[in-house]
Every structure is written in structure tokens, then in C-alpha cells.
Amino acid sequence: MNLQYIGLKEINGPLIFLNHVKGISFEEMVEIKLDDGSVRHGRVVEIKGDMVAILVFEGTHDLSLKNTTIKFLGHSMEIGLSENVLGRVFNGLAEPIDDLGHVYVDKFFDINGSALNPVARVYPRDYINTGISSIDGLTTLIRGQKLPIFSGSGMPHNDLAVQIVQQAKLSDEKKEKFAIIFAAMGVTNDVANYFKKSFEEAGVFDKVAMYLNLADDPIIERILTPRCALTAAEYLAYERDYHVLVVMTDMTSYCEALREFSSSKGEIPGRKGYPGYLYSDLASLFERAGIIRNAKGSVTQIPILSMPNDDITHPIPDLTGYITEGQIVLDRELHQRGVYPPIGVLPSLSRLMKDGIGQGYTREDHQPMMNQLFASYARVMDARSLASVIGEDELSPVDKLYMVFGRLFENHFISQGKKNRSIIDTLDLGWRLLSFLPKEELDRTDEMILDRFYNHEDALVYFNIEEDVIIKELNKEGR
């Protein structure tokens, strides 16, 4: 039997407080009936003895301390799901906002997900092709992985998110089902319309379910948006055998809402005012990615966050890095030079890619090509640092050659615009770039691989470069 309580102890912002309440549970759903008969909904967010704090979804305006009726429903928040969520647009509470009516419901699911036995998890293998060379070639996204994108204010992370949704596909041709869940938090109306229009024009909208929380929506909705999206992803993956890619942007807006919510409850703040449980809260979201034994589907996550002041040590990117398996970092200097996507290669990594690439997945030369590109580009950074001190004209012929290689790498490999490159095109382009360098400089690759893929003359023709003075000087030195 569900008990009803009449009257409130206190109203504080979006929270209402009740005394002398027993037999209820944390995150239990609540119906709130006003004087005029209208009904609002809430969620238990704090229990202290017999005092309860309830967060009201629709806000606390016009609530009466004496005549408001509270009814506890005896369950946490649930959403109804079916395969019909694909091709639909929802708000942060999983309510349809595309004027297409209600979704036919197959089952109801708790938005907090089900507890997963770590022993039941399967190690992620096989990659998801995003069509972006900097990701596919150097920080490969593996099925079941959580790989965040660290961006900054004014950086094109929204464009990158759209491009990933438009181009992402599975790596094989086994006719496996693939779907994308897109969750946007704290976005403006024009950005939300940009997302919807881009997916429709690309013809991918029928495999995408969108959960949109706008900037003027309540903060409780922002906190629930990623949970609703991940619940839909788990349903499609484990009930309907889809391989699901979840793109969530911007997690910084989510964390700001969590900070505001924590402050309204009077909790003691942690670093930079964020609640002390920020780490565990983010982990409760990110750890819902993975592959489960005996399940045909998988859940892969790309959370996108904007770093305040480009500070990678800020609590949000710092804690995210502890939970996830790598990161993709956008570089402001590349962005200012017009490189798109401006992915910083050296600070980016994918910790799971080594077991999801190579023979049987991408191509047997993927790992050595990646290692050599990283090493060669690191040498470019060293040469640029030296040039900033002594001037580029004073560099050795080898360092000058690396300076040219760096420009080619950034202009052709990293900067690809809106092109959709296959993994084979990415690998071939990587070898053309490496073939520009003298063979003796490629010391991260064995001779058999080099003999097969190294072609200096082809590289010069491809990049329209003549045998210039630098290369002639190297030849004089016997290089």
C-alpha cells in the first residue's frame, strides 16, 4: 500500500522536504498533487532519519506548504522501451518531443541499469570505424570501450560528434545490427536543431535515438538524460542484439548540473565546488559500457566534455581519465591553424586498441604503422622546439626533413575535413607519409613490413614534392 502525506516541512529551490516519513527508498519516484488538482513528479534524493528531500522535476513554483499531497510510488524511475525508439527524439526524461506520438513499449527498465557481475564481462575486441583517420589509425575505438573526447570552449566538438554519428559503422560484414544513441545535455535550441538536421540530411536518422536536454530545461532532467540514454542502449544491446554506440555531449554540462544540485542540498563541496562523489557518479555512467558474456550486442561510449580553460587537470577531465580507457584530445593550436578535426595526436591514446587491430581485424601492418607515426611525429615536436630557439635555418638536414613531414602529416592525415576514410585508406596514407622519410629513420618497424609498404618515390609523387635540397643533402651524407 502506498501512503500519502499532506503538507511539507520546507521548500528550497527545486527541493521539497518532508518529516516523519518511513518505509521509503532512495531514488523512489513521487507524485505531487497541488491545490488545483494538477500533478507533478519527483524523486527522493536524500534520506536523513525520518526526513526526506524530494527533487521536483517540474519545479516548486505554486506549491503549498499545507495542502500539497505527496504519494510515494514504491519504485525508482523507469522508462518504456522498444526498438521503435530508433528514429525518434526524446527529452531528458525519455518523453517524445518529435510530435510522432508515444512509443510502443516492449518493457519497462530502471534508468539506473542492472548490476553487472565483473566476471561476466568480456574483454573488448574488434573496432568501430568512425571514418576519421586520427581516430581509426592512431586511437582506434574498440567495441565495448569508453573513449572520451576532451575538448575546450569554442572547439568543434559538436561537429566532430555529428561526423562520428554520420560515419560510424561496424568493422565487418557479418550483417550485425548497429545503432547509435545520441544524448545532448545543456545545449541551445540552434545546436539541438543542428544535430537533428545533420542526421536527417546524412540519412542516418533511422538508426539513431536522440535524447535532448536544452539549456533552459530543469537541472534534474540534465542529470537523468545520460541515464535514460544508457538504459535505451542496454536494452538494444542485451535484449535486441544491437551493437550500440552512445555519444554523450557535453558531460561538463552534466557535471555543472550535479554541482548545482549538490549545492542546493547543502552538501560539503569538494574540488572546485563539485561534490565529493563526482568520481563515483561519473563511474556509474561510464561503467555501463562493455560486452557481457552470452550477449550478442555491446555498448560503446564516446562521452564528450569541454575542459574549462583547456585545463586537463580540471576535476571533470581528471576523474574521467581515471575511469575511461584512454582519451581523444582536441588541440587548440591545430584548430586556430584551420586543421579539422584538430585532434592532438601525442596526448591522445586508446588503451584497448592493441587487441582490436591487426590481422583479422584491420590489417597486419596497423600496429607498426601506428607506432612509427607516433615516434616520427614526436620527433617533429622536438625539431619544432629546437627551431623556436635557434631558428629553422640552423636545423640539421634531418630535422628540416622532419619539419616538412610534420606539415604533411597535419595537412593530410589529421586534417581531412568531412571526408569519410576507410581503414584501408587511412593505413595507406600513413605509409605514404612515412615513406617520405628516409628508410633508416623508420626504426620502429621491422624489415619485412618496411619492404612491403615503404615506397619513397610513390610518396614524393603523391604529395607532389620534388627531390629538394634537403633530400639531396641527406643523400650526400649517405642517408
Automatic annotation (TrEMBL):
<dbReference type="GO" id="GO:0046933">
    <property type="term" value="F:proton-transporting ATP synthase activity, rotational mechanism"/>
</dbReference>
<feature type="domain" description="ATPase F1/V1/A1 complex alpha/beta subunit nucleotide-binding">
    <location>
        <begin position="131"/>
        <end position="350"/>
    </location>
</feature>
<dbReference type="Pfam" id="PF00006">
    <property type="entry name" value="ATP-synt_ab"/>
</dbReference>
<comment type="function">
    <text>Produces ATP from ADP in the presence of a proton gradient across the membrane. The V-type beta chain is a regulatory subunit.</text>
</comment>
<keyword id="KW-0406">Ion transport</keyword>
<dbReference type="GO" id="GO:0042777">
    <property type="term" value="P:proton motive force-driven plasma membrane ATP synthesis"/>
</dbReference>
<dbReference type="InterPro" id="IPR000194">
    <property type="entry name" value="ATPase_F1/V1/A1_a/bsu_nucl-bd"/>
</dbReference>
<dbReference type="InterPro" id="IPR004100">
    <property type="entry name" value="ATPase_F1/V1/A1_a/bsu_N"/>
</dbReference>
<dbReference type="Pfam" id="PF02874">
    <property type="entry name" value="ATP-synt_ab_N"/>
</dbReference>
<feature type="domain" description="ATP synthase A/B type C-terminal">
    <location>
        <begin position="355"/>
        <end position="454"/>
    </location>
</feature>
<dbReference type="InterPro" id="IPR027417">
    <property type="entry name" value="P-loop_NTPase"/>
</dbReference>
<protein>
    <recommendedName>
        <fullName>V-type ATP synthase beta chain</fullName>
    </recommendedName>
</protein>
<dbReference type="InterPro" id="IPR022879">
    <property type="entry name" value="V-ATPase_su_B/beta"/>
</dbReference>
<dbReference type="GO" id="GO:0046961">
    <property type="term" value="F:proton-transporting ATPase activity, rotational mechanism"/>
</dbReference>
<keyword id="KW-0813">Transport</keyword>
<dbReference type="InterPro" id="IPR055190">
    <property type="entry name" value="ATP-synt_VA_C"/>
</dbReference>
<comment type="similarity">
    <text>Belongs to the ATPase alpha/beta chains family.</text>
</comment>
<feature type="domain" description="ATPase F1/V1/A1 complex alpha/beta subunit N-terminal">
    <location>
        <begin position="10"/>
        <end position="74"/>
    </location>
</feature>
<dbReference type="GO" id="GO:0007035">
    <property type="term" value="P:vacuolar acidification"/>
</dbReference>
<keyword id="KW-0375">Hydrogen ion transport</keyword>
<dbReference type="Pfam" id="PF22919">
    <property type="entry name" value="ATP-synt_VA_C"/>
</dbReference>
<keyword id="KW-0066">ATP synthesis</keyword>
<dbReference type="GO" id="GO:0005524">
    <property type="term" value="F:ATP binding"/>
</dbReference>
